[in-house]
Amino acid sequence: MRTPPLPPWKPVYLTAGRLAALAGLMLLLAPSDLGIEELRHPARDPRVAVAAPAPSVKRAIPVGAGPLAPKPSSKLSRVARLASKLRAHPRPAVRRKQPQRATRLALLEHAGLLERLGSEAEIAGVRHRAFRLRKAGLPIFNRRGRIHDGTLAGSSGHLSFPPLASQEARITRDEAVRRAIALTSMRRLWAGVKSERGWFATEDATVPAWQVTLPTEHPFGLWQATLDGRTGEPLALVDLARHLDGTGLVHDPNPVLAPTPSLVTLFDLDDSFRLSGKFTTVLDDRSVEAFQPDLEFVYPTDDPRFVQTSVYRGLTDTGRFAEAHGFPAFSEPLLAFTNVAISESGDELNDAVFVPGFNFFLFGNGDGVLTTNIGKDLDVAAHEMGHYIFNVLVDPVVVSSTDLVLAIEEGVADTLAALLGGDANIAESVIPGEDFLRTLANDRVFPRDLADDPHETGLIFGGFNWDLVQLLGADGFADILIAGLPFLPPDAFLGEY
Ligand SMILES: [Zn+2]
Question: Where are the domains of the chain?
Fold first, then answer.
């Protein structure tokens, strides 16, 4: 491994201003180019020895590193000679700060130690650009920083790293890709595999590494595996796609309890810039669908995209809650149609529906008389996702609307609505003139309160669940519910719940 070529240094252009910048470069190189460990034992790297202005550093001893370690650079030595020469002839202080830091940046780049990434983004009048450090001609995957308006930011802690490991990478590119695929157990790719050789800073050494990026389709993801280049052992694994969280404006939890909408996090968005992610993809056949490359889904409350945002949030938060309490990971998003009208008449749908087997959701707007705010009320989305969760865990056999298992399912769906919404009342904003659609704070008992409508009978079970939530807490109850439901027979009756 050879040292990357350095551009020629032209001493004739070394003015007083540039010299000050040079001193800055040396200061910067000390914490950034070298690792923390090396700094605790100074004078082990010739460049520190000659460059650092600290008088305690006197002698240079070459680092006895392996083939990937860079050789001392003659160019840098020449710079150092110039620096000491000019130290002997001190000049008046020069203007500091901004120009100096900008020149530091130029020098770092000049020396091939800093690599700009992506493209520049201008936010609130400041230009931002990401960069990563390079060492011996290869990038250090986990040492990055930012450039703001042409000057370095965050150039301390994040830019230091332990000494380079002495062993060279032995794993080939193909082997690295093969191992990364095995790690993610991925089934299909939606784009090509990317692989790159570089370094990875661990706690005590900066080791040769491969970084492999796999765009996986089932389940959807953008997996980035970092492997030790010497052994092929995994160093880090992360799904980049899952980490896209956006912001949405919603009534939290509904337009009655929170008439003024507020900003909430929209979790687990994919990289489509639409309301689509790990748990659900929201579709609207009657109006424009939300599309936000900045992932800020902020719309007026009467905009159909406000409903789309609310539904995405409700279904996603319920899915996340279930996963957090033991529900198996969602493997693909469920389709959710908002703004649904009755196809023959074109009238607004006064309902929200989960369709088992096909596993999609429909959210009407309500006609404003019988129902309203269906898509805007967190309880409704949580209830519908509760149906999906129950169907996965129980797979109920239903032949009649009075089958008890259907009522148990409604009770569980209402319980999830209560847990997500934070109170026993279900869908407070949905029935004009009413305080709520249903409430789990009830004293319904079996068999006195059996009804033809499974939602009504479900209140017996929902009420029972809510009593348990008071005893066990929301998290404790949710753990038991999700662990216990798979034991429920598909045609369960009361004693079995
Ligand atoms: Zn229901």
Answer: 11-159, 173-239, 243-496
Cα-to-centroid distance, 298 and ligand 1 (Å): 29
Rounded CA gap, 417 and 378, in Å?
7
Q: Which residues pair with 152 in a beta bridge?
A: 147
In angstroms, how far is CA 335 from the centroid of its own chain? 21
Give the pLDDT confidence score for residue 149 in this predicted structure.
79
Query: How many whole angstroms from 22 Cα to the centroid of ligand 1?
Result: 70
Q: Name the fold adopted by 243-496.
A: Elastase; domain 1 (3.10.170)
Ligand 1 centroid distance, CA of 290 (Å): 27
Find out whether 192 and 213 touch, Cβ atoms under 8 Å. Answer: no
The tokens describing 39, both together, are 């700094």
Give mean pLDDT in consecutive 10-residue pieces for the chain, a chain of 497 residues: 38 38 38 27 33 33 34 45 47 50 77 81 75 89 81 62 87 94 74 89 93 75 88 87 78 95 93 92 96 92 97 98 93 94 87 90 94 96 96 87 88 96 95 94 88 89 93 94 89 65
Burial of 33 (0-12, 13-18, 19+ CB in 10 A): buried
CATH of segment(s) 173-239: 3.10.450
Distance 413 CA to ligand 1 centre (A): 6
For 489, residues 6+ apart whose C-beta sits below 8 A from its C-beta are 496
Contact 103, 24 (CB under 8 A): yes
Instruction: Tell how far the Cα of 250 is from the centroid of ligand 1, in angstroms.
Output: 22
